[in-house]
Amino acid sequence: MRIACPFCGPRGSEEYTYLGDATVRRPEGDAPSEAWFAYVYLRDNPAGRHRELWYHGAGCRSWLVVERDMRSHDILSVAPARDMALARGRAA
């Protein structure tokens, strides 16, 4: 699988480290234990489009949000995680 880093261009997935689901939100510190349990242990296994966090450790060392189709592994978009976080902050 090749990921098109916005800073380095297309690179093989061996240059990256997969972190996980980019849509999971950390609960507030005073959230009930059930919220923390769900955050740590309960994850969906989607079929179709999904956003993931990847770290380009062997390249520019940037965190990226990769949207890909979980059935075909086709990569649909790649964006710096910082840009996605800033956009989410403006939407909140």
TrEMBL record:
Record-linked Pfam families: SoxD
Organism whose genome encodes this protein: Roseicella aquatilis
One GO biological process term is: tetrahydrofolate metabolic process
Please report the name of this protein according to its UniProt entry.
Sarcosine oxidase subunit delta
Q: Which InterPro entries match?
A: SoxD, SoxD_sf
Query: What is a GO molecular function of this protein?
Result: sarcosine oxidase activity
